[in-house]
Specification:
Length: 119
Amino acid sequence: MTARQRDRDWALPAAAGFLALENVALLGGVLFVGNAPPLVPAFLLAKFPFCAALVRRRHGAFMFLTLWEASVFVIGLLNPSLDLIPRLLVLGASTGGLVLLGLALSAFPETHLPDASLN
């Protein structure tokens, strides 16, 4: 384990916890407002297993959550129905999630391609 990995041991559980809490807040907002399509809460509930898989260092969960947060950021920028305060909250939360995911990247094991030489 390198010094860089030891310095960022906190980033992986922090990213998973932050993304789960962000999802709880978004799910609560959607349920409180109540004018979202019925599949939106079910779609949001599907994020929780990926947050749990992130703590277990699953590469697929990392990629899915990175794509999810980038999509939420773009939706926050382009959605005309969001007022200023909710828009800033969505943009700030997705930016925070992406930053934590970037910091947690060093917690994943490096993979190397096999040597192509036939010596």
